[in-house]
Amino acid sequence: MIFLLKNRRMRRVWAALLLLLFCASGWSQGTTFKLAEDPDLPYVIAHCTACHSGSLITQNRMTRDGWLKTIRWMQKEQGLWPLGEHEERVLNYLERHYFPQTSGRRKAIAPHLMPKQNP
Amino acid sequence: MPAKNHLSRRRFLLQSGAFSALLGTEIVFHKYLPPGLLPVALAETNTIAGKDPGLVVLNDRPLNAETPAHLLDDKVTPASRLFVRNNGIPPEAPDSDNWTLTISGESVEQEKSWTIQQLKDNFKHYSYQLTIECGGNGRAEFNPPAKGNQWTTGAVGCPKWTGVRLKDVLQASGIKPDAVYIGYYGADKHLSGDPGKFPISRGVPIHKALEDEALIAWAMNDEPLPLLNGFPLRLVFGGWPASTSGKWLQKIAVRNQIHDGAKMTGTAYRVPCNPVAPGSTVDETQMCIIEAMPVKSLITFPKSGVSQALTEPMLVRGHAWAGDKKVTRMQLSIDFGQTWLNAPLSSPVNKNAWQHWQHKLRFPKPGYYEIWAKATDDTGVSQPMVLPGWNPKGYLNNATHRIAVQVI
């Protein structure tokens, strides 16, 4: 905790998080989209929507691995800070609510019928 | 918010195109399939006596098993590779010597019973290659999901059947002018064990029963029927839901009304009379009996998932069928349906037999491809590329078959 607070960005995140934990979770959400209610939502608001619209989350569906890759890309290219111990909670949230959906008119070809040498 | 974060945010939004590109490239198509959606991969693969070990068991009580597409490559489906679909418990050791078939019902002039030997001695024998396909073949793809065995593509086959014409046997009993339907009764038992209940007793309208290719069969590919496929005697109606082709056949009733046996009524083997939106609740009175199956095709070679050298042409082949109709055009796409190639197609050996097609494909560059197969029947009706009309029980999915290929 003390270590984390040494980092200016992380101090801001912790401040936002503490505020959010005591506020209605919809507090910082827009009206055209709504992030799913969840005990871990404050972590998503603190780390993700601090910089970008929540609609970038709500309109996408990814596997846990896909969300992690996106976080790594944002960290590499977009100046996202390390999520530290919160990464697990953020990924849990994203996987729980924004996992690829099975709806639609046709599913993908089943994995056991896919090429093994898929680069 | 400090300026730097504003900048970050703006940069991020400006680069949302890059974000999409990331989605398009790194989140590969196949990764969208959650692990819970692998009906075949999750299904147990048990070996069934007399059947190819490659058959996939969907249900072990009652036994139901389907054939992976690459095992349906034979022009005439071997007995070992014909799917197994049970509604009840099959008889354990039917005695073919003392087996009798009774022709009865309110619309026959005279009830008659025949042993199998008497059928063989009294009527001319016919052999036809007849396609039988479970009405629920392809159910696994419907969404919202439909309850029942989650057949993917393998509840279909086209063996050669030998027997006598149903019409010859019915005419020996005399068909009254008010006959509209036939219904069968078999020796399989209801899952509950209740001897008063039939697991299934379906049939066809009299016009289908009187077709030349409607058989009372005792042989598949010149051998006695496999036990699981109806030994010693069964009906075969090519091109109609396989549930009309009663197994372990003991009685045929000629009816003056639409047959009302088990799984003829309610919602079984019925689809909404008028099309409905996915997930709709449909009243039983608005459900209509499925008759001929729709146009469909399979890619049986190569096996999905194969690697292919860019420098070599790829031989692709399979079968196509269209219920009571004929397939007149077979098309393949390697670009997700943007362009189609015509594949040479054979004529059926007889009505209700599947047809064969093959083609050599070349790929423009290395990468991931799907081969899509689309058949068109003689009335101009083609297979849809997405799922056809959703229905509560998940019948009649004739969407284009797809296989995955990695070109290297």
Describe this structure as you would to a colleague:
The complex is a heterodimer of chains A (119) and B (408). In chain A, 47% of the residues lie in helices and 0% in strands. With 119 residues, chain A is an all-alpha fold. Chain A has one domain. In chain A, helix 2 runs antiparallel to helix 3. The N and C termini of chain A lie far apart (41 Å). The model of chain A is unreliable at 1-5 and 23-31 (pLDDT under 50). Chain B is mainly beta and 408 residues long. Chain B has 2 domains: 88-289, Sulfite Oxidase, Chain A, domain 2, CATH 3.90.420; 296-407, Immunoglobulin-like, CATH 2.60.40.650. Chain B contains 6 helices and 25 strands. Chain B has a 5-stranded mixed beta sheet with strand order 5-4-15-10-11. In chain B, strand 12 and strand 13 form a beta hairpin. Mean pLDDT of chain B is 90; it is low at 1-45. The A-B interface holds A 50-53, 56, 60-63, 65-66, 69-70, 73-74, 77-79, 99-100, 102-118 and B 1, 4-5, 8-9, 11-13, 15-16, 18-19, 22-23, 26-34, 37-41, 141, 143, 152, 304-307, 368, 370, 385-387, 399, 402-406, 408.
